[in-house]
Amino acid sequence: MRVRIALAEKEIKYEYKEEDLRNKSDLLLKMNPIHKKIPVLIHNGKPVCESLIQVQYIDDIWPHKSPLLPTDPYQRAITKFWGDFVERRFSFLLFIFMGFCFALLPLNF
Ligand SMILES: N[C@@H](CCC(=O)N[C@@H](CS)C(=O)NCC(=O)O)C(=O)O
């Protein structure tokens, strides 16, 4: 999601491909052989994995339109720290929430 927001913010056109995570495509396995996870950003035929790294990459490649990170190195470091912090906390909460939803599925909500 954050990668799509970054691309939208910079008005970068891109092709979006859905991925069935229960039946991962050869493209995903080839582009992200280490983690085998989405999202994968493919730019000029080369993959960039991990969404936080992708956002930084997008900012590096298209720096002039809507900068996403501060230019000051210290402020950049602080911004990345909080991005990483939210990532870790949010992933954990999302994991719990999804487990809760799956537990309710048999009840036909
Ligand atoms: N730290 C990674 C997390 C990526 C991630 O967990 N992706 C999930 C979907 S949101 C996934 O591909 N899950 C499939 C799996 O774990 O096999 C990132 O930010 O890119």
TrEMBL record:
Keywords for this protein: Cytoplasm, Detoxification, Membrane, Transferase, Transmembrane, Transmembrane helix
Localization: Cytoplasm, Cytosol
EC primary class: transferase
Catalytic reaction(s) noted: RX + glutathione = an S-substituted glutathione + a halide anion + H(+)
Entry-linked SUPFAM superfamilies: Thioredoxin-like (SSF52833)
CDD domains to which the protein is assigned, alphabetical: GST_N_Tau (cd03058)
Segment forming the signal sequence: none
GO MF terms, alphabetically ordered: glutathione transferase activity
Entries under InterPro entries matching the protein: Glutathione_S-Trfase, Glutathione_S-Trfase_N, Omega/Tau-like, Thioredoxin-like_sf
One of the GO biological process terms: toxin catabolic process
Record-annotated membrane-spanning stretches: 90-107
GO cellular component labels: cytosol
Pfam families: GST_N
Protein purpose: Is involved in the conjugation of reduced glutathione to a wide number of exogenous and endogenous hydrophobic electrophiles.
Protein's recorded name: Glutathione S-transferase
